[in-house]
Design goal:
Number of helices: 5
InterPro entries: Ribosomal_mL43, Ribosomal_mL43/mS25/NADH_DH, Thioredoxin-like_sf
Radius of gyration: 31 Å
Subcellular location: Mitochondrion
Number of strands: 6
Pfam family, one: L51_S25_CI-B8
CATH topology of the domain at 17-118: Glutaredoxin
CATH class of the domain at 17-118: Alpha Beta
Low-confidence stretches: none
Keywords: Mitochondrion, Ribonucleoprotein, Ribosomal protein
Helix content: 25-40%
Structural class: alpha/beta
Family: Belongs to the mitochondrion-specific ribosomal protein mL43 family.
Amino acid sequence: MSNSQLFLKPGFVRAPLQNGVGRYVCQLQRIVFKFCKNHGSSRGMREFIEQDLVDFAKENPGVVVYLKPRRHRGPVVVAEYLNGDRVWMSVNNKSQSEITKWIEVLRTQAGDVSATRLRKYQYTDYPSVQGPWTPFTFKDPSLNTAKLPDPKYGANNRLGETATEKLRKMFEQQKLSEKSTE
């Protein structure tokens, strides 16, 4: 383990609530916009609030939006997620379009995954040098250039007739039996 991971919380990477299997659940629960009403570094944040905030709130009804004006402080966006993570982002001297892009990033992510030391579900003292097993691990390499179906590689010739051929014969026999009964 490297020293950079000593103070990170350990965790597993998994899809939150199996998101995307059924319906999509936005992981962003609450977003707080902290800004100064007259400070120059908050100009982009004020423009975002005046022009884009109402549209953002309409498009994301499951996200609670708070506005918190503060005197003589830089603009900050705090995002809180369903898994309990809080992401704090300074948007000091950013333009309205940059803030819009960063809000979209916060809306689509599932918390601060980069601040998690990744752990595996499996552990071994002796990891494989050869890599993971796949269905093609022990296959003959000449299969890569072969034109299939090839009797050399398939067992189709040993099976006799195919299911399609059997169905055709049964259909022909049925037709012949119907003609003979007429």
